């Protein structure tokens, strides 16, 4: 059980798709999501959406990537949980025997991440964002 002083918050959901643009269009047309950005132009490598306050990243899956797992896992790449102090969060989780599948990484000057596998193969990202 996490100590009362540790606060986790949902940051984003990250999906992979054979066609990121078409998948994004589905969320826009079906659920009223709003496109907030794209990475890459030809081809697009990621589309970012705001889905009712939830940030949804849809990544263009590389060729040869395995099919999605049998439901309920289809399409889910990882769940991102934001923390104020990633060093404390990683230390806390490690002290409780949680193994990381990707170590603490400085992605850019404003983002640090670490990944672990949760129950049923769900990949979970712990991340700390600093203001730009």
Q: For the record, what CATH class of the largest domain applies?
A: Alpha Beta
Helix count from the secondary structure assignment: 2
Shape: globular
CATH fold field value of the largest domain: 2,3-Dihydroxybiphenyl 1,2-Dioxygenase, domain 1
Order of helices and strands: EHEEEEHEEE
Uncertain spans: none
Q: How would you write the strand order of the largest sheet?
A: 2-3-4-1-5-8-7-6
pLDDT averaged over residues: 84
Tell me the number of structural domains.
2
- The CATH architecture name of the largest domain reads Roll
Relevant CATH superfamily of the largest domain? 2,3-Dihydroxybiphenyl 1,2-Dioxygenase, domain 1
Radius of gyration: 16 Å
Terminal residue distance:
32 Å
Q: What is the β-strand count? A: 8
Give the biggest sheet: 8 strands, mixed
For this entry, what is the oligomeric state of its chains?
single chain
Quickly give the structural class.
Answer: alpha+beta
β content, as a range? 35-45%
Provide the helix percentage.
Answer: 10-25%
Key words describing this protein structure:
2,3-Dihydroxybiphenyl 1,2-Dioxygenase, domain 1, 8-stranded mixed beta sheet
Can you characterise this structure?
The chain is an alpha+beta fold and 132 residues long. The protein folds into two domains: 50 residues, Signal recognition particle alu RNA binding heterodimer, srp9/1 (2-Layer Sandwich); 55 residues, 2,3-Dihydroxybiphenyl 1,2-Dioxygenase, domain 1. It is built from two helices and eight strands. Strands 2-3-4-1-5-8-7-6 form an eight-stranded mixed β-sheet. The protein is globular. The N and C termini lie far apart (32 Å). The model has no long low-confidence stretch (mean pLDDT 84).
């Amino acid at each position: 059980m996490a100590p009362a002083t540790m606060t986790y918050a949902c940051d984003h959901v990250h999906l992979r798709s054979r066609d990121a643009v078409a998948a994004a269009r589905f969320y826009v047309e079906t659920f009223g999501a709003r496109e907030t950005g794209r990475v890459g132009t030809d081809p697009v490598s990621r589309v970012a959406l705001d889905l009712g306050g939830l940030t949804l990243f849809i990544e263009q899956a590389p060729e040869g990537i395995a099919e999605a797992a049998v439901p309920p896992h289809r399409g889910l790449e990882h769940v991102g949980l934001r923390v104020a102090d990633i060093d404390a969060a990683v230390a806390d989780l490690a002290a409780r025997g949680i193994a990381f599948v990707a170590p603490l990484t400085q992605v850019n000057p404003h983002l640090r991440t670490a990944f672990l596998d949760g129950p049923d193969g769900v990949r979970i990202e712990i991340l700390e964002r600093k203001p730009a």
